[in-house]
């Protein structure tokens, strides 16, 4: 009985961490595409930046993009341009943008779903 309670408490704690984590927001790529209009000037329409000074973000892992944008927003990553771009983004905007760029062909060279 006590053991069962401990396990369910652990499961609940794990779920609090994972299930309520803002990083677990599922992004909507279509919404992300609409929100990417301001980003396109530097990163290209689909994230394949035409200029070497602006990184390519098409095909990057969504969680990488989310973390990068959160870190520009919080100041953990310091870049004056991206700090300004990320300042007004909500967690939902970030998830949507990450979903959009990660769904584009670009950096990824491996098959997206090798299991299928
Ligand atoms: C004025 C040009 C400009 C605009 C507009 C812009 N970016 Fe950036 N972005 C940059 C530059 C330059 C960097 C590299 C910054 C650095 O060295 O950290 C960058 C870096 C990034 C990175 C990190 C890439 C990596 O590989 O780590 C992401 C993600 C990103 N931008 C997303 C966006 C999104 C989303 C928008 C629109 C909301 C946007 N950017 C708008 C110029 C821009």
The helix count comes to 6
CATH superfamily of the domain at 26-102: Cytochrome c-like domain
CATH class of the domain at 26-102: Mainly Alpha
Which residues form runs of ≥5 with pLDDT under 50? 15-23
The chain-level structural class is: mainly alpha
Distance between the termini: 42 Å
Walkthrough of the structure:
With 116 residues, the chain is mainly α. It has a domain at 26-102: Cytochrome Bc1 Complex, Chain D, domain 2 (Orthogonal Bundle), CATH 1.10.760. Helix content is 56%, strand content 0%. It has 6 helices and no strands. Residues 15-23 have low confidence and may be disordered. Residues 38-39, 41-43, 53-55, 57, 65, 68-69, 77, 79, 81-82, 85, 97 line the site of heme C.
Question: What layout of secondary structure does this protein have?
Answer:
Elements: H1 2-19, H2 29-35, H3 37-43, H4 62-74, H5 80-87, H6 91-102
Helix pairs in contact: 2-6, 4-5, 4-6
Bound molecules: heme C.
Considering the chains and any ligands shown, give keywords for the structure.
56% helix, binds heme C, Cytochrome Bc1 Complex, Chain D, domain 2
Quick summary:
The chain has 116 residues and is mainly α. Helices cover 56% and strands 0% of the residues.
């Amino acid at each position: 009985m006590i053991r069962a309670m401990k396990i369910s408490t652990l499961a609940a704690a794990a779920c609090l961490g994972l299930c309520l984590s803002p990083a677990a927001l599922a992004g909507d790529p279509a919404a992300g595409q609409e929100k990417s209009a301001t980003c396109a000037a530097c990163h290209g329409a689909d994230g394949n930046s035409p200029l070497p000074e602006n990184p390519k973000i098409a095909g990057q892992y969504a969680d990488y993009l989310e973390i990068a944008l959160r870190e520009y927003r919080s100041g953990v990553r310091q870049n004056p341009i991206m700090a300004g771009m990320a300042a007004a983004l909500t967690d939902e905007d970030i998830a949507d943008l990450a979903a959009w760029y990660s769904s584009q062909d670009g950096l990824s060279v491996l098959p997206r779903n090798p299991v299928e």
